[in-house]
Design goal:
alpha/beta, six-stranded mixed sheet, 13 strands
């Protein structure tokens, strides 16, 4: 009887050890798989050529997907792109729901210390747009004084913050670029401020309107954007920076910009 009990105990222990070993192996595989994926947060407000969405709002192409895919290839990761409203992107990064967002800047957030910041990479060049029959605006902020300027709700414009507060420039906030162009066309604004990428995206959707507007020759602002990495991410900022440096050095970044009709600056 004692011998039989001992055999049962040995078999039970072997079964437990085997199950534990299988569980540990499965958990290790899952952990490795999780570490091999990098999850990018995507702003739903950024359209062509930065982002190309299908009818279900899934990211299918654009400069930022090409850039993210290139980073992932450099660090040996698969990619996942999750679309968020602009106000939810930062929270997704802070909580670790997403690993990283690109085409962002420490200048655009009050929570810059809660993210790791990459090397400067994709340029954002803003210009002032006016109707073709109006004087072109090229001196900033002086030529914007006493004017109504269409801007994006939630966007930062440090070049004119003081003048807006002082009442020298009236800022009209709208939620999307199309609304800004419509307001300008109807005479509700004297000009609008937007990035070259967003302006090009608008003209792609409405090519017949391109000749109705003139862009400032002088950029309103020039900024090399950065990628913000979650402090909860398994990926390290050093890995991301090495990847970006290589993408820039081998000409891949410039090729992406040219592919979508954007000049590499």
């Amino acid at each position: 009887m004692k011998h039989r009990t001992h055999l049962v105990f040995v078999k039970l222990r072997s079964t437990v050890l085997m199950l534990l070993s299988c569980w540990l192996f499965s958990a290790n595989v899952q952990a490795q798989q999780a570490q091999q994926e990098i999850k990018f947060a995507v702003f739903d407000t950024l359209g062509y050529p930065l982002n190309i969405f299908d009818q279900s709002s899934h990211l299918t192409g654009g400069v930022l997907k090409d850039f993210g895919d290139a980073i992932a290839k450099e660090i040996g990761a698969s990619t996942m792109y999750v679309v968020y409203s602009r106000r939810r992107v930062e929270q997704a990064l802070f909580t670790g729901q997403a690993d990283m967002v690109c085409y962002f800047s420490p200048q655009w957030t009050d929570n810059r210390d809660q993210l790791f910041w990459s090397l400067p990479n994709l340029p954002q060049i803003e210009r002032v747009v006016v109707l073709r029959d109006k004087p072109v605006l090229n001196q900033f902020p002086q030529q914007l004084f006493d004017k109504k300027i269409a801007t994006r709700l939630g966007y930062f414009y440090p070049q004119i913050d003081k003048e807006v507060v002082a009442g020298k420039i009236k800022r009209i906030d709208l939620t999307d670029v199309s609304s800004m162009f419509r307001l300008l066309t109807k005479g509700g604004a004297d000009g609008l401020i937007s990035s070259e990428a967003e302006i090009e995206g608008y003209f792609k959707n409405f090519p017949d309107q391109r000749d109705q507007f003139v862009l400032s020759k002088t950029p309103f602002s020039v900024l090399s954007t950065q990628c913000g990495l979650s402090q909860k991410s398994v990926w390290k900022i050093e890995q991301i920076n090495r990847a970006i440096a290589h993408i820039q050095a081998n000409g891949e970044q410039d090729a992406m910009l040219r592919r979508y009709g954007l000049m590499a600056k």
